[in-house]
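Team,

Forwarding the record for the chain on the shared tracking sheet. I've put the sequence and predicted structure together so nobody has to dig through attachments.
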Amino acid sequence: MNETREQRAKPVPMAAVVDQWKETELSKSRNKYEKLNEKIVSWEDKKRKKAKRKLHRTERSVEKTKLKATQRFRDENERIEIIVASARAHAYESRMKEELKVKEKANLMRTTGRKPSACL
């Protein structure tokens, strides 16, 4: 019995206890930082996805704005073309009327024998 008591009572070497404690603490620390790193990675993924969604929204918004601006440009050009066509037609009519007046006046002068008052 004495031997069994002595075996039980034998102190565990201090180095072994310290090594075991060290390994336990290191394991706790590693686990803690692994969990923290997982949270960081999760946060990073969440933020990157959010930024990507915002970029796509902005790009779609820009595309819509660009399409609207292009359509306004086309509408404005169409309106300008209509106005220009009307102005050209009016100018042509005015020119034809003026030329007709001059020709009629010239014919009248020929028939009456009068000379134009402002002739070079």
